[in-house]
Amino acid sequence: EKIPRTLNVEQRVVIAVIANLEFYNLVRSSLSVDDFEDAIAKNLYIILEECYRENAINYESILSKCNSAAVQNLIAQRVASGEFSGSVEHVQKIIEDGILGIQCITLERKRRNLLNKMRLLKGDTLEERQQLEAMLTDKMALDYELLNKKEQING
User: What confidence tens digit (pLDDT) does each residue in 101-118 have?
Assistant: First the structure.
């Protein structure tokens, strides 16, 4: 498992939550495991969820479920660095901004997949034209949601 020098948005959110477990419900209500593409972040999200379901959501339980010493060290270093400490407002902003970033990436991925499906349809039959029309409606909804998320990020 390759351990990054810098954290991507997904890793940043889950490690910020591990350092501040009171924010787990916020992340849990905003994201699902399918929103994570990064293997480290996805695994940590799954571990957080397992600990939550076992009513053992604490730093020690989370670290004990990490099957990689390198990931354990990454978490320990980032938590000890103070990067995710400070005022509640500061930590909440880090996590909320990260959630919005992940949601944008997920919406962009869904949009790309939808456009690829649309390209495959020729529109020769009534059924294909109806499918294209439904997909276009879905694409417009994704575009609208993506625009709203980006506006929230940019304030």
Answer: 999 999 999 999 999 999
- For tokens 């949009």, the residue is 111
User: Tell me: the pLDDT tens digits for 73-105?
Assistant: 999 999 999 999 999 999 999 999 999 999 999
57-70 confidence digits (pLDDT tens): 999 999 999 989 99
Burial 90-127 (b: 16+ CB within 10 A, else e): ebeebbbebbbbbbbbbbeeebeeeeeeeeeeeeeeee
- Say if residues 9 and 102 touch (Cβ distance below 8 Å): yes
At position 51, the amino acid (one-letter code) is: C
What are the backbone angles phi and psi of residue 112, rounded to the nearest 5°? -60, -45
Nearest-angstrom CA–CA distance, 139 and 144: 9
Instruction: Report the C-alpha gap between 31 and 51 in whole angstroms.
Output: 17
CB 54 within 8 A of CB 61: yes
| Integer-rounded Cα radius of gyration of the chain | 19
